[in-house]
Design a protein that fits this description.
Layout lengths: L4 E6 L3 H11 L5 E6 L2 H10 L4 E5 L7 H12 L4 E6 L13 E5 L3 H4 L5 H28 L2 H4 L3 H26 L3 H17 L1
Parallel strand pairs: 1-2, 1-3, 3-4, 4-5
């Protein structure tokens, strides 16, 4: 199977590498390029293009601005996740698709939540929306009698997922609005649609 999404990882820590690779390996379409030294990092970003990059800022020394410039010039985007230790004093502006995380990683920062309560509400909205979209899509499937028309279970599941996906987007906005998070989930959906358009 051809892997159509390449991710560059720059991390020297073997334990963290194994965690990153294990998490990303669940998705068969990802090709992972793991680099553990700075010389090879700069060599490979001149030779190859990547869809995204995960980078340990502590191990890049002072060359991270140069790295970002080369990465953007070669790939025509900045889909970069930078992370560093709490004690590192670096000032990086959030721009385009650059995400800056502090170790240990905080879910609040990843989900851009303003507080623990806000993070709880975001998770609650995602959970309710997922369950509700499955329930709401069932009458649609029954209305078109898809389960009667299609004998192949795999094809039936594929069509059901294709129906659930747009239903989920609508339900997510509806439930998000009920919890006072309309703007957050509208922005979330806009970003998701932008990613689909790029592909």
């Amino acid at each position: 199977m051809k892997k159509d999404f390449t991710i560059l990882i720059y991390e020297k820590d073997k334990t963290l590498n194994s965690i990153l690779i294990e998490q990303l390996s669940y998705f068969a379409k990802y090709e992972i390029c793991l680099i553990v030294d700075q010389i090879n990092l700069f060599k490979i970003i001149h030779e190859k293009t990547f869809h995204a990059c995960i980078l340990n800022l502590n191990q890049l020394e002072e060359d991270f601005i140069n790295f970002i410039k080369i990465f953007e010039d070669k790939n025509k985007h900045k889909n970069i996740i930078l992370y560093h230790d709490k004690n590192k004093e670096e000032s990086i502006e959030y721009e385009n698709n650059i995400m800056l995380l502090t170790k240990p990683f905080k879910l609040k920062k990843i989900f851009k939540a303003t507080s623990n309560w806000n993070l709880f509400i975001i998770f609650l909205v995602f959970g309710i929306s997922g369950s509700l979209s499955v329930i709401v899509s069932k009458p649609i499937i029954e209305l078109f009698k898809i389960n009667e028309l299609i004998d192949n279970y795999f094809l039936y599941l594929t069509i059901r997922i294709l129906i659930i996906f747009p239903v989920y987007q609508i339900v997510l906005l509806f439930v998000g609005t009920l919890f006072g998070q309309y703007k957050y989930f509208l922005d979330f959906e806009k970003k998701m649609l932008m990613r689909f358009k790029k592909k």
